[in-house]
């Protein structure tokens, strides 16, 4: 990934940290950084700095033209370089504005459908101009929707040994009523150790049928090579995993499981029970975990019988991850990674509160997930997978059956 050297003057920093408007300071900072990025991209594409004379030079600058970029911290004026041959290109605007466009479109739809508050109307007019129409919204949707749809239906060519699934709920206005709809999200870790968001779908409810449709969608796109799928213990979800991902090990999220156990534990005993259950989760191997389970049940059977009943019933599913080498357990035993992703989505989704339709949900959440997916692909590896691949080879030598999702 290209690296750029960014310079900030003292006046700008003073405005950022000591100015009366925090948004104005962030706006000035962002404007300065993005303009410097554009200049650096121009130098990269021409293979020469401004006024530099070299044999490797690929062309010449021809001034700049202003471009207004609408963001949550105000309108930024960016100066886009011109080349004499007209070949300058940048993905800066399309990448940055994708989620911004989706957010603004949701606000615009709310105004058009007559369901927005006065504040939403004011914000939308400030961002988009004093007037906008249904045709304006339609034209913008035609630009953004195909991008999100193509990403959510892209072929899944790589193997994803680890998959984490979860759902978040959002409110959607349908048939004159506000309804709660579940947005199912799947995150995978591929054989190179990078995380990817491999799919999303809106369901009427978090039922076996909805999750089954989602898993069918992933399989049709090529999902294969799954060893472990991690989720909470929602009944419909667990049944769908068993039906559509046969042969894949289900890991029950230990965070949710711990919460279930502690909810059934008398308050005076919760810290003690938590420590014992944690030792089970962190056991070196399944045999040690089972020994610790027996000791914990013996210790708390009389004073916390309901909690021990839950612990025993869910033990095998909550400790399935112990079959993996130790370095792969921590990041596959819970849905915490997806929970953090959901929190980031909530931060933006909270602006809308009630979506005007399902398409608006897919547009905004899809754009946000696309941007996160791009960040992950350009960042550090989430896991080093060399030892895992060795472990899997040894495992398959003892079992000629290779798991495939039909």
TrEMBL record:
InterPro entries named among the record's database cross-references: Transposase_mutator
The protein's GO terms of the molecular function aspect are: DNA binding; transposase activity
Alphabetical list of NCBIfam families matching this protein: transpos_IS256
Instruction: Tell me any Pfam family this protein matches.
Output: Transposase_mut
Source species, domain of life: Bacteria
Organism, per UniProt? Paenibacillus antibioticophila
Q: What is this protein called?
A: Mutator family transposase
Keywords, in A-Z order: DNA recombination, DNA-binding, Transposable element, Transposition
Write out the GO biological process terms. Answer: DNA transposition
Q: What does this protein do?
A: Required for the transposition of the insertion element.
Name the family: Belongs to the transposase mutator family.
């Amino acid at each position: 990934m290209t690296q750029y050297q960014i310079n900030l003057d003292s006046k700008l920093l003073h405005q950022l940290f000591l100015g009366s408007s925090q948004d104005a300071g962030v706006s000035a900072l962002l404007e300065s950084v993005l303009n410097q990025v554009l200049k650096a991209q121009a130098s990269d594409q021409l293979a020469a700095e401004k006024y530099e004379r070299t044999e490797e030079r690929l062309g010449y600058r021809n001034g700049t033209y202003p471009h207004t970029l609408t963001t949550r911290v105000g309108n930024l004026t960016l100066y886009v370089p011109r080349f004499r041959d007209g070949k300058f290109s940048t993905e800066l605007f399309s990448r940055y504005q994708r989620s911004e466009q989706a957010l603004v479109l949701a606000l615009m739809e709310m105004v058009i459908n007559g369901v927005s508050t006065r504040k939403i109307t004011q914000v939308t007019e400030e961002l988009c101009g004093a007037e906008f129409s249904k045709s304006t919204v339609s034209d913008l949707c035609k630009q953004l929707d195909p991008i999100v749809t193509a990403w959510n239906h892209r072929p899944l060519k790589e193997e994803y040994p680890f998959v984490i699934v979860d759902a978040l709920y959002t409110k959607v206005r349908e048939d004159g009523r506000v309804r709660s709809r579940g947005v199912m999200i799947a995150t995978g870790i591929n054989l190179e150790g990078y995380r990817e968001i491999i799919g999303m779908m809106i369901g009427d409810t978090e039922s076996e049928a909805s999750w089954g449709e989602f898993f069918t969608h992933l399989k049709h796109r090529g999902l294969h090579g799954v060893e472990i799928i991690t989720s909470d213990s929602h009944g419909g979800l667990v049944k769908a995993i068993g039906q559509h991902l046969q042969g894949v090990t289900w890991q029950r999220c230990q965070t949710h499981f711990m919460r279930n156990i502690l909810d059934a534990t008398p308050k005076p005993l919760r810290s003690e029970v938590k420590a014992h259950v944690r030792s089970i989760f962190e056991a070196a191997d399944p045999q040690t975990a089972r020994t610790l389970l027996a000791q914990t049940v013996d210790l708390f059977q009389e004073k916390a019988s309901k909690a021990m009943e839950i612990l025993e019933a869910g033990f095998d599913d909550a400790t399935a991850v112990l079959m993996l080498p130790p370095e792969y357990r921590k990041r596959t035993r819970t849905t915490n990674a997806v929970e953090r992703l959901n929190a980031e989505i909530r931060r933006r989704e909270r602006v809308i509160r009630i979506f005007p339709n399902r398409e608006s949900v897919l547009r905004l959440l899809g754009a946000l997930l696309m941007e996160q997916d791009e960040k992950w692909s350009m960042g550090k590896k989430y896991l080093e997978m060399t030892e895992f691949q060795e472990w899997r080879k040894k495992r398959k030598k003892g079992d000629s059956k290779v798991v495939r999702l039909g």
